[in-house]
Amino acid sequence: MPTRKPLSREAIKLLAMAAMACNHAAQALLPAGTPAREALVDIGYFTAVTMCYFLVEGYRYTRSRRRYALRLALCGVVSQPVYWLALGVDQANMMFTLFFCFLLLWALDRLQGHRLRLPVVAALVLVTAWCDWPILAAGFTLLFALCGQLGRGWTALCFAMAAVLFFAFNYSNYSYAGWAAGPAALHAGLSCLGILAAGAVILLGYSGRRSAFALAHPALAKYGFYLFYPGHLAVIAALRVLLPGT
Predict the structure, then answer these.
(1) 8 A C-beta contact, residue 42 and residue 193
(2) pLDDT over 70 (residue 1)
(3) pTM of the entire structure?
(4) Distance between CA 13 and CA 34 in Å, rounded?
(5) Which residues pair with 206 in a beta bridge?
(6) Does the N terminus or the C terminus of the chain have fewer Cβ atoms within 10 A?
(7) What 3-state DSSP class applies to 131?
């Protein structure tokens, strides 16, 4: 008999939340260039591609796409002040990125055959240039949307392509900053491990089912991530203020 895959959607989302917290805490609280910071930041790269995967899945199965989009937008607005305080970066947070990626899925779906489809899709991809995971998250979303049309057997290839895109993005950044080819390739390669780990977890472990906890407490399971995102950023922002030298 085939072995049932052990991980529910909620279990994988918990892994993604923990990885994201590691990434954000490392960026905010640890000195640049230290091995601990680099390792924790790379672990956090598990999260964005996982979010994009479940965003595509959520778009297909949600009961109300309008409410889904509204939740993403509202969470982005609420999270933006603590995002700035925690990470000190001049960009919109990941919830806005996911909001625009959700609109991207809507455009692909609802504007089929329309002459405005390609311009709208291109505009939504470009808007993410001012957000966390600029352009890349939109690319991941497009890959997983394509997987949905081709079948689940293509998902592994989509994760591999996402890792290649991320490698190219980081390698070009390191090269632009003046790194030698060898160290640039090494660090860019290590940064891809989180994406490859996400692919392995989803492909080998994801059951496609909800957890027993989510079935018993649907509201908490549904809104837990939306509470966690600004919550963990607020904690990190407070630590930056309270801890000297961060």
Answers:
(1) yes
(2) no
(3) 0.92
(4) 28
(5) 7
(6) N
(7) strand
